[in-house]
Write a structure and sequence with these properties.
Layout (H helix, E strand, L loop, with lengths): L1 H19 L5 H9 L2 H5 L2 E9 L2 E6 H14 L2 E12 L2 E10 L2 E12 L2 E11 L1
Parallel strand pairs: 1-6
Antiparallel strand pairs: 1-2, 3-4, 4-5, 5-6
Length: 128
């Protein structure tokens, strides 16, 4: 009986995690794991609230790409894992752990749906 309960609980947890991650582009996760700014940048909205360590500003998608590229040049990514994600009607968010050659960072982004695509309008990288 305990085994069946444990198995059903495990299946429910896996299903919940799968359902939550449906609105998260695999490109963004791959981009964070590999430092590929192009994969992430194509999801930036035209205006992005950006916070990368000490840099904090509202900027264009082009400037956000440049700032993220600069961050990855100094902090070569090793891995990225999702800690928590969720969505509400018209928006989604993710909180994750980015492991780099220089340390661990918390990555947070908030996105809003626009034309059947979720665009990032807030993006943060903070020291863990």
């Amino acid at each position: 009986m305990k085994t069946i309960k444990f198995l059903l609980t495990g299946i429910l947890v896996c299903f919940t995690m799968f359902a939550q991650s449906q609105n998260i582009s695999p490109d963004i996760v791959t981009g964070l794991k590999t430092g590929n700014v192009g994969l992430i940048g194509k999801y930036f909205a035209k205006s992005v609230e950006l916070k990368i360590l000490d840099l904090e500003k509202t900027c264009s998608d082009v400037d956000a790409n440049a700032a993220l590229s600069k961050f990855f040049q100094s902090n070569a990514p090793k891995d990225f894992s999702i800690i928590h994600s969720g969505e509400r009607t018209g928006s989604s968010y993710i909180i994750g752990k980015l492991t780099t050659a220089t340390g661990e960072f918390r990555v947070t982004y908030f996105g809003k749906k626009s034309d059947n695509q979720c665009l990032i309008n807030q993006f943060k990288i903070e020291k863990f």
